[in-house]
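Dear colleague,

Following up on yesterday's call, I've attached the two folding results inline so they're easy to grep. Please treat them as preliminary; we haven't cross-checked anything against experimental data yet. The first protein's sequence and structure tokens come first.
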Amino acid sequence: MKRIQKVFFMMTNKRLSCLVVTVALTVMLGAVPAFGGHPLITDDTGTQGKGKTQIELTGQYDHDDEKGVKSENWEAKAALSYGLFDSLDLVLETPYSWTSTKDSERTIRNNGPADLSFAMKWRFFEDEGLSFALKPSVTIPTGDEDKGLGNGRSSYGITTIATYAKDPWAFHFNLGITHNDYKLPADEDANRRDIWSASFATELQVAKRVRLVANVGMERNSDVESDTHPAFSLGGVIYSLTENIDIDAGVKWGINGPEPDISFLAGLAFRF
């Protein structure tokens, strides 16, 4: 019996390893919180727990039409989050993008992997439903900056996270800062380097397997010629197929011009 269990365990690990490698090469990797998660943009203080892993596959479509320029963007991600300790997660994220920009004269299309990022989420305080966490991160320039899929140089940032949970509600607040460096002189001239962001999210458990989520947020506009900062609102639902498998969907609206007019999001998360 022990030998059979050992063989089964090795086969299972091999299949999981193949799945992770396949995902990394095809739809890329990213990180997911244990409380809220996709389709929320706002992170939460939840971690996976020591020795536990979560993988999330997500997709997003953005549409924007401004001043005669039509932009469409598809992005696929896979999210890998590993619990190094009960209150500390290591996170890997690499998106893959397809972009299309069309004006009256031409259409420009590009696709490829964007910049890979590593992060660490540390929940340092937790008491009676209130918790706080820090999430430092760094990006590696794996995207093609000539196609607009990356910066060409590493960037780094940190996000402070607060969560308050009291059944059936949970509330999350993020405040972050990111420092970007650019390889191309044109990007250096056109973009701000330091970008702040702030967002708030709430979720409501309406049934044993169903959570409704809402999200609003804003970040500093990277365009040096604009002082209008992109802002969004989002609504969605998370459905738990089992204790360890979630599916989700959401719609995100741009509150002002710099944000895409509308985005559609969907995801699948599984834990082991």
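Below is the second protein, in the same order (sequence, then structure):
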Amino acid sequence: MPLDFQQPFTERTPRVVNAGKLKRAQARRKAHAFLAEGENAVEAAVATGAATDLFVTEAAAERFEEIVRAAGYMDMYTHAITDKAADALADAVTSTGIFAVCRPVLWTVPKILKGRPRVVAVCVETNDPGNAGTIIRIADALGADAVIFAGDTVDPEAPKVVRSTAGSLFHIPVARDRDVRRVIGQLQGAGLTTFATTMSGELNLASPGESLKQPAAWLFGNEAHGLDPAIMDAADYRVSIPIHGSAESLNLATAASICLWESSKALGQLEA
């Protein structure tokens, strides 16, 4: 059915109001849904069938014609909206004018482990949405099998996280569990070796020996204070990334990309 931009939904239309509420965690939990924004995230949501409703401005409908057409083929509810409605839905400073309400896509840790993953990124107490989304995107790009958010972390289905994944949230299994020790125990019980990243580990990533040639779960700590000492002690190895310049440390997402690259390479995950 063609979109009717003569009578588009406004910022006061109930469907728009309810979709806008999904920017808040409590509303997401209550509705069992979340909001994706922007070309990459919405395209992935539509392609994987996670999207239930598509909201699009007239300009965005022309710009992202293929996404709108695909949503139509999949019988998703597609709604024409005004620019003011787009501003009400937008989390980004500059709106692209295209949004999707999505079903929850998070996995459980046991479900992930049933797939016998070989490389897993574990974000422990990660609070920054941009870093969280970037790590999901990096894990997807570097051949990792899953990402787990452990402890008191940002919600992986929060708007900025979803946007930062550039669609990867819909491509790679992602789980969230508030019990860090339980997650580590489940990973170790499934045969994964756990590596805790730290500034002063007994294992140097420049010369890891044979340690990376086994299924691995990488524990990445909070942006401000890293991993708790008790969590590092619970890991099988404590790993440091050598820094040869004058920088004091690496950004969380940068450190994660280096570790996941080395692990995936050692296990042949990056081979064509």
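For the second protein, one point worth flagging: The CA atoms of residues 131 and 257 lie 11 Å apart.

Best wishes,
A.L.
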